[in-house]
Every structure is written in C-alpha cells, then in structure tokens.
Amino acid sequence: MQDSPTDEITPTQSNGIGLRNERSLYAALKQWYAQPGDCFEVPLNGYVIDLVRDGQLVEIQTRNFSAIRQKLQTLVQEHRVHLVHPITLEKWVVQVDKKGSTTLSRRKSTSKGRLTDLFEELVRKPELISHANFSIEFPLIQEEEVRCKDGKGSKRRKRESLKDRRLVGVLDSRVFRSNLDFLSFLPPSLPQPFSTKCLAQATGLPLHRCRQITYCLRKMDAIVVTGKRGNELLYEW
To answer: pTM of the prediction?
Structure first.
C-alpha cells in the first residue's frame, strides 16, 4: 500500500507543542521525539495526529491504550503509524500543596520498572503489531510523579491526587516493528513446548506478567498453542 504524501496532510501547527491540553510528560516526550520539519497536531480522517514525519503518523500515548485503540485501528489501514509509549524505570514522588504552587517534598520511589511492563498496556490491542503499517517504540524513562494530599485520589495512592507527570530523562528506547521482535522476551533456555509457568520460572517474572506476555504473543501470531498439560496451555514459536 502506497503511503499518502506529506503535502496531502494539512497541519494546524508546523512547529512547537500543539493545541490540546497536554500534561507535562506527554508534551516533553513530543519534544524529545520531534525533529526539524515535523508537523504537529495534524487533522486527518476526523482525528488529530500528534506528529507527522515524512508521511508517517506518530502518536504519543503515556497510558491507557484503550483510549486510542479505534484511532490506531482506523489509521493503520491506509497510513504508516508509529506509537510511542514510555516505560518508567525510575520515579520520584513530588508532594505539592493544594494550590500546586509549592513543593513540599521529593523522594525517590522504591519501585523499579522494567521493559516487560510494556505488556500492561499492550494486552489492550496486541494484534496491531502484526500489521505491516504499524510500529511501536518504548522510551525507557525517569519521571517525577506530582501528587497532592487532598483526599481525592485512589486508595492505592492513599487518597493522594495525581496532578502531573514530568519527564526527568530518557535512558534508552526500544523499537518493535514486527511480531517476531517480541520473541526477544522468551529466553533461549525456555523449552519447547512451554507453559506460562515455565516462562515465569525461566524469567523470574510474576505469573500475571507472564500471562500477559503469552496472551500478547498469541494474539500477534508470534507463538501458537500446541496442546495442554493438565489445565495449562502449551506454546511453541
């Protein structure tokens, strides 16, 4: 399928950050990815595209793939689409007052992220990676999470509202262009056929994460089910 020429896509803004209400992390990642000549906030087929480069549509999504699932599924039919989604390896928690104008404290979170966290969101639409027009990139980042003790947040955050996410730095970035690229998450020592429990034992990852990995690899046709061992599905690649 031939790509649409860039000059057929009319930008509303040709440089700088776009027109929508953007949180800091989203805006900073757009600037990190941008190159001279890129077009921002481009209207196309009823959608607004974050960035267009040489006919390729670039979407930056910091969380919740479900929110753009239909958008990606529609655009990828006629255009090359590149999705950028950050994975947080290190995080600092910043407490601010209720006005958000004063920093009360800043501490480093004890939790550590890893590249396999990408499957947390990828489970929402893993089939897209099998499309020839689709690719996905995972910047591995350090970030600040800005919170306020206002009693309005989730129980998990002890009723602290999440006010903003700020980019501290990009440590690395990984690009996946096909379903076979994701086979890198299967260690060479993994037997064939293998179960989800085998994958957990070989990688040291939690079982729920390994379930997400096998589900995604199945949906993108990177592995196939070859049988069962008791109640466990067996897979091969």
So the answer is: 0.86
